């Protein structure tokens, strides 16, 4: 871990971060970006599983007006994935206009506004399929040489993403394991997921938005306890089980980067990211607030969110909501 | 108009923009910020009209999975309210990480991400109650001296805003008047609203999200035709009728700044803004994409959006959706 | 001109600006990036002409403590080369800390600071050799594929630039032509330069910093009169004469982009830029304030400036000074 | 120290940073902002000591063309005063234009540029008199209520600062004390300065730019060893001796914040800052690179720098140079 952190620290003093983050060429031959079953023009992968019928089905099961807010506040000084890890900019908000000081009685109209600047992967956010690729290509064989300009990708940007309305399922791994928070760097396994689902009495369905709870948001917003490179999260096998066997549409977790870090693969510092985004076309959501759902034992819900259509962006801040539904059982 | 533009141009060369934007002290004595009927701690005004029951009522009327996307793309070079008018920063997106150039075969993992910077009043967005005040105070008697720091307001920021789920109503004024786009600077009257509602066969209810269509998004995204200071929009009387008689919860329009500009009140360049936000506690949404609803003649719908919880911000970019409902008639 | 502006407007709505700014492949075969006479490691081109001896020679000729300030103010709303032309971000300054409002007597320490954000080509600034290249390469055969990462170039960045101390010469073309300001898009010729030098009684020497006055700063800071694509400036022949026959070390001008615009070469919108930077290794300075030198008829001086060492940047804001010297005649 | 760091960490999660940074009201009655001896319009304090004569005197003593570069590189990931201490934004540089990827032969012109964003107190920089005040006022009785708008101060901004040309003196405290680097938080005393000057054989003169060497740049750019709140630096008594008895014009040091931290005054976390800037009108420079001067034993020199004229800013990045001079003894 210390080695990784030292290496990371050196990395962001370097001009060519991207180059040095890449692994060695010994990666298994089979690991190439995926070709979309939805055709050569597809840019959103498994989000194609949604339809008017699937949306209507879940919306009509809503049986309460109680809303669970799954998004976090964005504020100066907030924990983030990438400022400490990669030297990326922190979230900032600065005023543009403010009521002038002095004798207020002279001023009728008091105008305030502000600008924000942020990594798109800040706060609760969705990762789009352009966020990670393999060998210079992203999902559906789109190469950086052809589709990446100075300001972003022409393909699979957040602007291509539809609003998401689907059944959401919470898998409360922390609770199933009887802990408040999973241990640092703990890697969630297929068995962990199955055990938690059994304990909850929940079963997954094709097209679900599957949200994994590690309990780490108990530490929110303590920066000293929420660091990307020591977080617990999804393991590669568990991700494969969710994507391939359970046919989840979207994944999510209550941590900074979905998967557990550090990676045990010396050639790939984020193997779950590249597997889901580049090989399987599965988008996912990070830094979700799942504490209220967990407290109330709400494991099934209508999941609703609308990514901002940031043209060419590899991610978008979102504030998803969960609404309780009638059980399908 | 030319005078206004010249004046504006001078304004943003000045250090103390806010001060000079303020009007003279001759404003009518009655125009003070409002005190909230929801108590001294209230920061969200009419959004208090929502309840579990109100949300459930509208969600249960959903009868289609077809979704109307009411948000616009955000992109470098997009039209905005305030860069030309006030010298505010434009929307920008810049890359943080990108697959390195050169021999791609050496690089397993292709990592891309980017930062955005923007005025919070960019793209489709909601204005919070702190955006405009009167005499140095905002809604509910909160003064800048007490509640505005170097980075924003402690009160009525976007972080205090709940997700919004309510009945939405489109009032298609452009269609009712038989034009594609209302004339430049046209001021919508109470009669215009009544006539359009009649023509549509729609009636308003307490707690509605009322969206006004001027047709200006027919010009999207042509910057030369979408300028704040020449836009058509809501007049003050029409705003009063909606807020006080119809008891709308939230307003919205398909233009850069809700109301018509320029203002005819020399003391207040945005009288509808200050009336709604500071006096009545009514939040509103700007730069809505209403073209699809208008095309399909959908005038009643479930309106769903989640402002980002930008701490202390006077606005938040959003991407609302509309979902068709069974008629209440 | 109108066509160019329209084209430009369309350009910055596109994701791949850089690609579309490029010309057609019919450019003359001879126009390739230059190889440095100072060796394969050279990144600064003609700045290698400076030596301890050359600096001492000019410093010892200083004969007055009077200073000419050749830099402009940077402020919100200032004219710039590239926000209108390319959709680039404008200069912004926003507060980070400010004395709190309210009862000032409670606050001993009043701390203020701010952040700036800007295109590095804003205000008075130097263009480094990485700013323009040909066919994907910059000066000294450095290719983007090898040396350009997600955050900038590894070669010829402003961090490699030495402080500049050399003889400066003002060529007051506007005065020689008897006008306050050269006409829009006027292209300065070799004859214009010779005539002005004769009129002034000045002769050029190898290693000079040669500053060309068009008079356009008479309009400073009127944005409506200072637009990149209609500016007067250096022509390609004049640039060649200065670089090749007069062996100038650095060039400069009192306009937004050194050369006259629009270019008459359909394949290259900035042929003087690519000639000087990519083919000849000559850096240059834009948006210089030459009015005081011109007013006082000071045509020879010690020129002193220190580019900020912005790692990998293609430009740096500077504030050069000129100090009167004893004539060399 | 730990307490201070904890307190600091809490601080930047708060909305009203400025308010909480302020001390208690028990500060001695005498500590008020100073009134300028150069009159009620003065905004630059002791920089008024410069004159054409003073500049010429020092420039004419230059006897070598060898230049000492006193500025540091600015780069993503660089150490800074204030991102860790206050949650301020880090230095960032991001590309605006870059040669398009793909078939390079199709692209004649290769255009690159970038934007930077930074706290103005980043890298080698000068602090202006508006940076710290007392009781809501800055130097010369200018109050925030009257002169501070939403975007900065109308008084004492960097735009008011002249280029600085004066005798510079290096006081190498680290060398005089026989250490590479002064211990963490070491406070430099008057005796330390006198001893070092004696050891060097240097004497101070009215109007000098006095640069203090602690040796901390031996750690450059190791972020883990260059933290504001544990740095060695000038003590208040030493600052008073330099300002009042030696009549220094400008001070400087090779650390992030001039003075030693943490402050021993519970009411003022930066007492040397407020003393020099607010009470005495003495500007100073931080993060100077003094290693080359120290290595060569150059203790007297012509000091030359030009602050960028950032309108209303409390600081400006600079890259000063030192040029050897004939001794005055």
Automatic annotation (TrEMBL), chains A, B, C, D:
User: Can you name this protein?
Assistant: Putative cyclase
The lineage, from the top, is: Bacteria, Pseudomonadati, Pseudomonadota, Alphaproteobacteria, Hyphomicrobiales
InterPro entries to which the protein is assigned, alphabetical: KFase/CYL, KFase_sf
> Residues of the signal sequence?
1-28
Look up keyword Isomerase and say if it applies.
Answer: no
Superkingdom, taxonomy of origin: Bacteria
Arranged from A to Z, the UniProt key words for this protein are:
Signal
Q: Which GO terms describe its molecular function?
A: arylformamidase activity
What is the scientific name of the source organism? Answer: Roseibium aggregatum
One BP term from GO:
L-tryptophan catabolic process to kynurenine
């Amino acid at each position: 871990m210390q080695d990784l952190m030292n290496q990371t620290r050196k990395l962001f003093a370097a001009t060519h971060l991207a180059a040095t983050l890449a692994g060695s060429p010994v990666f298994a031959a089979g690991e190439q970006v995926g070709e979309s079953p939805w055709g050569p023009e597809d840019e959103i992968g498994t989000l194609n599983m949604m339809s008017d019928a699937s949306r209507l089905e879940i919306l009509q099961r809503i049986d309460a007006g109680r809303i669970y807010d799954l998004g976090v506040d964005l504020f100066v000084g907030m924990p983030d994935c990438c400022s400490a890890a990669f030297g990326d900019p922190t979230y900032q908000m600065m005023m543009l206009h403010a009521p002038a000081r002095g004798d207020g009685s002279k001023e009728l109209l008091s105008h305030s506004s502000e600008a924000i600047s942020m990594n798109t992967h800040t706060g609760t956010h969705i990762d789009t399929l352009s966020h990670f690729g393999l060998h210079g290509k992203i999902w559906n064989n789109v190469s950086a040489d052809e589709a990446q300009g100075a300001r972003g990708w022409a393909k699979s940007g957040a602007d291509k993403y539809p609003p998401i309305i689907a059944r959401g399922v919470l898998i409360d791994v922390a609770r199933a394991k009887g802990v408040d928070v999973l241990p640092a760097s703990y890697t969630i396994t297929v068995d962990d997921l199955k055990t938690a689902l059994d304990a909850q009495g929940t079963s997954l369905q094709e097209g679900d938005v599957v949200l994994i709870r590690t309990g780490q948001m108990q530490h929110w917003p303590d920066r000293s306890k929420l660091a990307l490179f020591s977080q617990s999260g999804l393991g590669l096998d568990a991700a494969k089980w969710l994507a391939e066997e359970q046919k989840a549409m979207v994944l999510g977790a209550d941590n900074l980067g979905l998967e557990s870090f550090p990676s045990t693969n010396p050639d790939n510092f984020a193997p779950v990211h590249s597997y889901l985004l580049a090989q399987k076309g599965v988008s996912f959501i990070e830094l979700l607030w799942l504490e209220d759902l967990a407290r109330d034992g709400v494991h099934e819900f209508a999941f609703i969110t609308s990514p901002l259509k940031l043209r060419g962006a590899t991610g978008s801040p979102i504030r998803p909501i969960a609404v309780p539904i009638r059980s399908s059982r």
